[in-house]
Amino acid sequence: MFLVTMACANGLVALGLMLLLRAGLVSFGQALYFCLGAYAAGGIGRFFGVSDIFLQMLAGALTAGFFAFVLGFLLARYRGIFFGLLSLALSMILYGLLVKSQALGSTDGFNIQPSTLFGIRPGPEWVRYSVLASAAIVALGLALAVHRYLRTPLGQLGPAIKDNEIRVEYMGASARRAVHVKYVIAAVLAGVGGALAATTVGHIDPQMAFWTTSGEFIFITILAGIGSVVAPFAGALLYGIIHTTAYDLSPNTWQMSLGLSLLLIIVFLPEGLWSLVRKMRMQNARHS
Amino acid sequence: MNQLISVGVDGVIYSAWLFTAALGLTLVYGVMKIVNVTHGSFYALGAYAAASLTGAWLAAGYPPMLSYLVLLAAALLVSVVVAPVIERGILRFMYAKDEVVILLITYALFLVLEDVIKLVWGVNPYYIAQPYALLGSFTVGGLAHPTYNLILVVLALVSGLGLTWLLRGTRVGKLLRAVIHDPEVSRAMGINVNRYYLVTFTFGSMLAALAGAFTAPTVSVVPGLGVEIIVLSFAVVVIGGLGSLPGAALGAVIVGMVRSASVHYWPEVELFVIYFVMAMVLAFRPRGLFSLAEPRKI
Question: Is A16 touching B (CB cutoff 8 A)?
Fold first, then answer.
């Protein structure tokens, strides 16, 4: 249950990263928006007493989207490792701020009230189900929206930018604007994911902005591949499963199993696990 | 006034420490174009190796004054053993890949090494405070500073100047600069580029391990050491310009001074301010302060 809800949250973040990855950009700071979303959701709960799960997700999305819009003017000029390192720096700025801010609980963070649904407070045994259902609905909706977006000309610019940016410019499209738009979309998705993760876990802390959190999201994205909008969610679920089983089996080596699987994926399946699905489909098509 | 002086002293010490930690990172990037996340692992490896070797040395009753040499030996030993395994075993098959992909690969290796360290040394902290306390302290501007910190400054100067000399003044350095400039042509000219990559990676990792080994007496050696240092080193190196030695020095001084000033005057922003400087530098000089123009490839 927890696993699936978290898979929705992480999957949303990975979905955003997938958009960027299609344009050849790896953000090592997506935790920035994940954390912003979580703190926005937690903040409206803590300071205004709002605990509606959809309002929380909306708050997360708006906060993350706003910051991404502003920072996007800067970041859209960068490519390759400089994009990654600058986004890393930005997320570490947030981490540095949160760690020292007493009002937001400093390194300990703070707890979040159980969420309500359109003003109804579900009984304790139903909270998890209602969160899961809302998470699933929102994730599905956003995934469909991204799926649509990928078919638009702007969405299809992604791989083109990756392949050859100058040709994109000659074609008359603005690569910088396309990257900016993708960056904002990715941030909004991460913000919603962060808000979801916050209500699911019931606790938020600055660790959500630390670079290792960004690393986990990148792991999910690489694991899943960039073939389809379903892939990030499948990847997030798989990540959750690897994480929990590895952690159960030997708590001191779970990072090693993550690292090894990341290495194997990069070497043997550079397109991610989704490329297996595609291969199977192609074979089926050939047989029938 | 006194506070200003201690800001300066702390800043110098912290800069020296940062410089040693970040030097190897910029060297490896400069030569191999690899943003090496395992740098943090080597820092941690150095710290752990130093902690257990020095601990054993002191427990055996050997003269504690020589424990500084043991720190040095520990760093050399661990990097000479582990770095070639990683470079020859894994990284050399990856050079054809994109810079970002190699970054991810070193990140994966970093995760693996983190747990290897936990498996070898366990999760309990190690303390070796003796080399730290042994030298006593000196007083500047009314505040006592441990003399041990001067060793960090010497270490930074020696490694920085030594590396500069190696690159500028020796035959090996000239060949290495040729490799930096154009690996393919160097290869055609008969330079064994693979060997230079191996040596560079080992040497860069050794610098990280040295930084870790000499930090070990001042902290408790716990899992997660490398996680902190790697982003700090990134900040230092990126501010100066990836792959530039004077850049790393400048970045270290900037970050060191800024942090020391903020610790003294405004401790709430200590962490924030480092990455803020990094972001500002990247915003105005995307490739760092010491960067050369690069051709845009079509």
Answer: no
